[in-house]
Fold:
Amino acid sequence: MTTSEATTEAELQRLRAIICDDDPLVRRIVREALQVAGIVVIAEASNGREALELTRHYRPEAVIMDLVMPGMSGIEATRMIVAEVPGTRVVMLTGSEDDELALDGLRAGAVGYVSKAAAVDAIAQVLHGVIAGEAAIPGHLSMMLLERLRLPPEAGVGLRPVRSVLTSREWEVLDLLCSGGTTDEIAEALVLAAETVRSHVKNVLRKLSVGSREEAVALAAELRAPSAPFDRTQASV
Structure:
């Protein structure tokens, strides 16, 4: 057995990560900090598409993802990684002070958030924490999430029947339809491609047995009514 083949059990258990940022200097600084902390950086990406492809291939424990990049954004890449490689934890790395952007990243499935203004050794601490099952969210973002959870739904938007043939994602699309959102507006709100939104809308219409978006909106109001404890489309199931 050669030296390269004599990999120890401890090495096999080391946390593996992919770094995604369009700035090579940021990637180098983060890589060096992670390596000092004993984290293996198995690949680097300069945009969301590369990060997605590398994650599909290597299936790392964690991805450090910049949010604002040319081409596929970090948010869209995060959404796809979480869907396709659920064992990988995504931690956002951003220099933006836009809290709404950070919340979009969390909605997409990220489990942590690190500002580029933070000390670089904090990134390694965050990665170890999220792998252990902890969420790494700054206090002010946690408070924003709590405040939004406490807000009452507007005109029934956000309410769900006890039972429904629609998935959670399809209900999100239907909620935005009820709010008057267009395909492009829904795509922007959910960080999806317009074609993906159209596919979800088609599924909603089919599952609710209606012929138009307007009919789907009207039926949604019925399904949310107190007298309708479950989706009437379940009657034939």
Remarks:
- The first helix runs from residue 9 to 12.
- Confidence is low (pLDDT under 50) at residues 1-12, 152-156, 227-237.
- Residues 13-147 form a domain with the Rossmann fold fold (CATH 3.40.50.2300).
- The chain is about 50% helix and 10% strand.
